[in-house]
Structures are given as C-alpha cells and as structure tokens.
C-alpha cells in the first residue's frame, strides 16, 4: 500500500509542477470569456495550449508567447480566410486574430513539426 500511495503522490506532484509551468503569468490560464480565446505558445516546451479550441464567428483569438521562438502558420482554413505565417517571440509576444468565417482553422509552428499543431473549430 505504501508503494501505491507514494506513486500516486509522485504523479500528483508532477501534475501540479506541469500545470504551474504552463504559463509565465500564473494568473493567466487559457480561457474563453466574452468572445476572447487565449492560446499559450511554448508554455511547456513546444506546444500550443490548449491545442484545440471551440469559438464563434466574431471571437478574438490571442496567441500569447511564453517561451522559445515559434510561428503561428495556417495549414488549412476556410475558403476566403487570410491567415498567414507569423513569428511569435519575446519581441512580439502576442498575435491577435478576429474570426470572421465559420469552419476549421488548422495551424502549426513551422519550427517544431510534427508535434506543435493546433485547431480552432469556429461556429456561427
């Protein structure tokens, strides 16, 4: 029983450490509120957090830089959307995009493939 309890405590501690390391500002967890979606970039290594979000037409997406050098580059977006290659780093620590067309927006960091990808599912 002691071995199982110790293992549980170890996993619990690792989870707390991971969550605490996910953001530069501990009070700025990714959230969806009042039409604004915040996506952390490089919060815990080479990843977008969250990597998949649901949003509505008119919502504002904010990619907020946390660490490293990354890009937010579209791989597939709805027809009519202009969404390109944007570097994000300490000198330009956020990107802002207002969703105008419903559909699925897929994006990646061109510097950290194949794993650093994200999706935004946009409804009317």
Structural class by SSE content: alpha+beta
Intertermini distance: 52 Å
Order of H and E elements? HEEEEEEEEEE
Count helical runs. Answer: 1
On the 0 to 100 scale, the average pLDDT is 76
Describe this structure in words.
By secondary structure, the protein is α+β, with helices and mostly antiparallel strands. Helices cover 16% and strands 40% of the residues. It has one helix and ten strands, in the order H-E-E-E-E-E-E-E-E-E-E. A hairpin with a 2-residue loop joins strand 1 and strand 2 (36-41). 23% of the residues are buried.
Task: Summarize the structure in short.
The protein has 124 residues and is of the alpha+beta class. 16% of the residues lie in helices and 40% in strands. The chain has one helix spanning 2-21; strands at residues 32-33, 36-41, 48-49, 52-56, 60-65, 70-76, 85-88, 94-98, 103-108, 117-123.
């Amino acid at each position: 029983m002691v071995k199982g309890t110790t293992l549980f405590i170890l996993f619990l501690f690792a989870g707390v450490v991971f969550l605490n390391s996910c953001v530069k500002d501990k009070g700025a967890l990714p959230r969806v509120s009042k039409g604004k979606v915040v996506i952390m970039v490089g919060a815990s290594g080479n990843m977008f957090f969250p990597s998949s979000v649901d949003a509505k037409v008119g919502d504002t997406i904010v990619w907020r830089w946390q660490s490293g050098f990354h890009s937010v580059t579209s791989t597939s977006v709805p027809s009519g959307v202009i969404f390109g290659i944007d570097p994000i780093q300490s000198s330009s620590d956020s990107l802002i995009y207002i969703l105008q067309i419903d559909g699925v927006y897929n994006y990646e960091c061109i510097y950290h493939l194949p794993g650093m990808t994200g999706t935004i599912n946009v409804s009317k």
